[in-house]
Amino acid sequence: MDYGLDIIALLAGVAFIAGFIDALAGGGGLLTIPALMAAGVSPVSAIATNKLQGTFGTGSAFLAFARKGHIDFQRFRWPAIGAMIGAGAGSYVLQLIDSGFLAGFIPVLLIAMAIYFLAAPDMSDVDRHSRVGMAGLFAIVATIGFYDGFFGPGTGSFFTTALVALGGLGLVRAIAHTKFLNFCTNMMSLLVMIAGGKVVWIIGLPMALASILGNQAGAHTAMRFGGKGVRPVLVVMSLALTVKLLSDPANPLRMMLHF
Q: Membrane-spanning residues where (predicted)?
């Protein structure tokens, strides 16, 4: 399928906004995946292409936090390995599933993620004692990694919530380590998707550049102001894009519900 410059530019703009939001609170994929599908990209390729732009974006934010000394690589080396194992398995399973099922299932997941963002409690910026040991953190991170490899939107928020509620980190440190773990999951998932030939490079590379810029802006904003205030925007935009997907008469979920 051919993609015009207008479509590529629009998707790059979405990637910038998603990257900014992702660095602050996670969930940027709630915007990029439905935008890619609305542009005519198949569900699996949309997720794969999102991994390309997401890898560059989260890598950029991760480096911004690392340069400021916010990441404890020694403590999080095993969770990072768990994240990569989970993501690789999730991306492999994704490629075995029928694309028609995914086209109908993705709007359901998007709505579920929007509800999660609405209902999730606010998080403190004060460090506390960890509630789980290293084995527990490894298992939790690997599970979230599997979800990221299989679908992805909301992964950053899941990591941040787990690190605050169970890992004992304050919000800014949790966001910093989320970027590290999310970079690991995105990189592993991307490698599996490239091996499967699922990435749409002509769209993914401009989106990757825009995502880098968005994540850089978001990371510096998070370090200065924290990650508050972006949830309503994320929820509204993700629901609007979900409606766009369901407006297609050929969408399997719409056909099943007969509306």
A: 7-25, 76-94, 100-120, 132-150, 156-176, 188-209
